[in-house]
Amino acid sequence: MRNSFAIAMAVLVTTALLGGVAGTAAGAQPTISTDGPTAGAQPAVGTAGATGTGPAQTDDACGFPVELTDATGETVTLEERPDRITTINPSAAQTLWELGEQDRVVGVSRFALYLDGAEERANVSAEFGASVERVVDTDPDLVLAPNSSAADVEPLREQGLTVYHFKAATSVDDIAEKTETIGRLVGACDAANETNAEMYDAVDAAEERTADVDRPAALYPLGGGYVAANNTFIDAIMNAGGTDNVAAEYEEYPQLSDEVILETNPEVILVTDSEAAILDSEPYASTTAGTEGNYIVMNENYLNQPAPRSVIDSTATLSNAVVELQDDGAESTDGGDDGSADDSSSDGDSSGDDSGTDSEDGNSTDLTSADGNESDEDESTGDTGAESPGFGVVAAALALLATGLLARRD
User: Fold this and answer.
1) Which end of the chain has the least Cβ crowding within 10 Å, N or C?
2) What is the pLDDT of residues 233-248, one digit of tens each?
3) CB contact set of 140 (below 8 Å; sequence gap of 6+)
4) Cis omega before residue 283 (within 30°)?
């Protein structure tokens, strides 16, 4: 089982890295730049939505034509409301589903197929990146291309398609801004405002939930020594969920040596498989999280895609798990003989190696939602997108094809 896990990780990192070098897989994780092909500010769309710096734009002021400048510096013009929308990365698809605009979506990447009804849309993914031919065949009025689709933007524009490219989302505010922009582009500003309000309420609730508990030192390993560090939306979720990211002194998605990971000594590991197989491998097995079996199972689609439901679900999952782990740890202090959080057995004989779902050893927590981590079970050679490691990651990671797994993002 452990060997199959390593093989699966090797396939994933191969696909992801080749996508980053040769043109980004549909939802590919490593791209050359986290800000797209050219750095560009996200357009102001008339609403502070989440940031509170101005009035929220409503559907009454959400008319057409509309002109917005995207992350490439291109002014994207829509003369009328787009009726056919193709998304080439899953975060944009997730956002449109959240806005209730899924009926207008005609094309999605294969990593958006966990969304209800998405399998009825055209799959526009190629082996790496989007298939220009498949996207053209959807006859879209608008193509939404989140940041890790940078290399796909110009080939699609050369086919005469209207493509809006987003900058990397590295915070909850960035996700709110992206949601507002999508709402403005598709004429669903009210829904975007409501979605952002729900998202910020979820963040507030998560922070409130964990306000009086100790914040565990946490790490989200992506395989091959790569981790989610500072200046990433995953770090923002970890903070809002009540943990301290032990990799926060590093930027984006660095590759850390075994020695550095041991020095950070996380108390809890975030994983996206219920068996938490990575805790059986070094250096993670020798950290506090590994020796005590402390891990939290997250929904990989939600943790790894910078979109509103990702924030809502992931902050709730993480904050509830932090409280549960602390409660379990407190209950075990008067009876545990090894210091681990085990409140279910007086002799400490809990396996902790089953499904990870509310496990009896009290050290692992699996609160993934119903569509969970199994939705991509046939798509393990890809990723689910988001902002990406910098260029320096690529060369080092290519040497780790037998061991690496970079996160599924955007």
Assistant:
1) N
2) 999 999 999 999 999 9
3) 82, 84, 85, 86, 106, 107, 161, 162
4) yes
**pLDDT tens digits, one per residue of 68-113:** 999 999 999 999 999 999 999 999 999 999 999 999 999 999 999 9
- pTM here is 0.73
Instruction: Write the CA distances from 398 to 146, 219, 377, 389, integer angstroms.
Output: 24, 23, 24, 13
Task: Give the span between the Cα atoms of 137 and 68, in whole angstroms.
Answer: 25
Block residue for tokens 């050290």: 363
d(CA 49, CA 74): 24
Ranges of H-type helices in 267-337 = 288-292, 300-304, 308-332
Note the pLDDT tens digit of each residue in 61-71.
Answer: 899 999 999 99
Token readout for 384 is: 């689910």
Cα atoms in the 13 Å half-sphere on the side-chain side of 287 = 29
Q: CA-CA distance, 176 to 102, in Å (whole number)? A: 19
The per-residue pLDDT for 330 is: 57
Q: What is the DSSP string of 193-231?
A: HHHHHHHHHHHHHHHHHTTTS---EEE-EEETTEE--BS
Q: Tokens for 395, please give them.
A: 């060369």
**Contact in structure between 255 and 390 (CB atoms under 8 Å):** no
Strand order in the sheet with 163-165: 122-123, 105-108, 85-87, 142-145, 163-165
Strands 142-145 and 85-87: parallel
- Quote the Cα angle for 308-386-201, to 5°: 20
Lowest-pLDDT range of 215-219, 258-262, 364-368: 364-368
Q: How far apart, in whole angstroms, are the C-alpha atoms of residue 52 and residue 73?
A: 25
SS3 297: strand
Residue pointed to by tokens 């943990």:
243
**Burial class for 55, CB neighbours closer than 10 Å (0-12, 13-18, 19+):** exposed
